[in-house]
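Re: protoporphyrin IX containing FE structure - here you go.
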Amino acid sequence: MGGDLYSWIKALHLISVIAWMAGMLYLPRLYVYHAGVAAGSPESEVFKVMERRLLRAIINPAMGATFIFGIWLLVLYGPDIWSQGWWHAKLTFVILMTAAHGFLSRWRKDFEADRNTRSTVFYRVANEVPTVLMIVIVVMVIVKPF
Ligand code: HEM
């Protein structure tokens, strides 16, 4: 069996990241369409099921796994990482990505309770936030510009 422990954990980290980002980019897209149908309508009830399953079965576990394997890499990498600018920038944007996750989760509860008042335009803009954060995170950790 090839590859050291660090490479295996990094592979598991990336698999978790891909699943987390897939959900973070898809869920707000569902909100764009959900905000366009009437509360209590059959379409709205279908969106509720899709959003609940996406968040609970994919996004939440994938975020947990990203953190577990990310922190494991952090420990294996050693304390030197804290003197590197790219890591501080990456960590800042990972915290912002986690906050974005929190907002998506809160908005889902509003839809679930038929109390969403935000427009489709609001969710179109919100949909771009995880995309921009992901681009910055990946550039920081791959290019390590500073
Ligand atoms: C709590 C969250 C996270 C922690 C603690 C963490 C930590 C780390 C560490 C220590 C590495 C190894 C760096 C290296 O070997 O050069 C790494 C690699 C990586 N991380 Fe994260 N990370 C987290 C979240 C994320 C997120 C949200 C993304 C993407 C959106 C991401 C993308 C990557 C990528 C692409 C690599 C591979 C870099 C390479 O191959 O050189 N990470 N992560």
